[in-house]
Amino acid sequence: MADQNGKILYIFDLDGTLADTAPDLMATLDYVMIREGFAATPMQDARSLLGAGARALIQRALRQQGAEVGVEREDAMFRLFLAHYESRIADASRLYPGVEAALDQLERAGGFFAVCTNKIERPAKLLLEKLGVAQRFAFICGQDTFGVAKPDPTPLLRTIAAAGGDPARAIMVGDSKTDIATAKAAGVPVIAVDFGYTDRPVQEFSPDRVISHFSELSAAADRLLG
Predict the structure, then answer these.
(1) Domain shared by 78 and 116, yes or no
(2) Structure pTM?
(3) Which residues are catalytically annotated?
(4) Is 20 annotated as a binding residue?
């Protein structure tokens, strides 16, 4: 993509940052676990289980129940998860309040946008399309896009490049230790939302700024950029 002439690129995580996807993710997890003979997972455990992708979600749920499965069975559960999830990807998932207004405000100020998520690329794009905002993002990176996942900084740096941005003019927005660690490893400032999927307060991971609503994003970015 062409260079964006010094504009600020905002790179967003997806699950727990742009959208509350826990209801559909946890419902799909329950579908897979029950079908495989395991117990359902309490919804209140979502914050500690989500955020690292579907395979990690399955692994964490199994570990929580003290269960072990072989690689072959885990692969089958992963494929079942993806197929079922895509069929109900936006049944209950919604953008967080203020997302579209914040994008409008940042765009008017010269910002542009990308997504860097540990969700697989295909469902990430499908979800953003279903939520009506896919066209807002210059590039959408999933866990499999570059063959490496966050917290490795590679997907973030390559997302910035693919979107036509500059790491020196970029801000990461995420909800977890993983997002914060990724941004720090890439040398990119990071704003954390405090309403996402983390079992510990995001302040503990020392992001550059913390916001509690998307209406605060523009001001936080301005302070961060000096």
Answers:
(1) no
(2) 0.90
(3) 13
(4) no
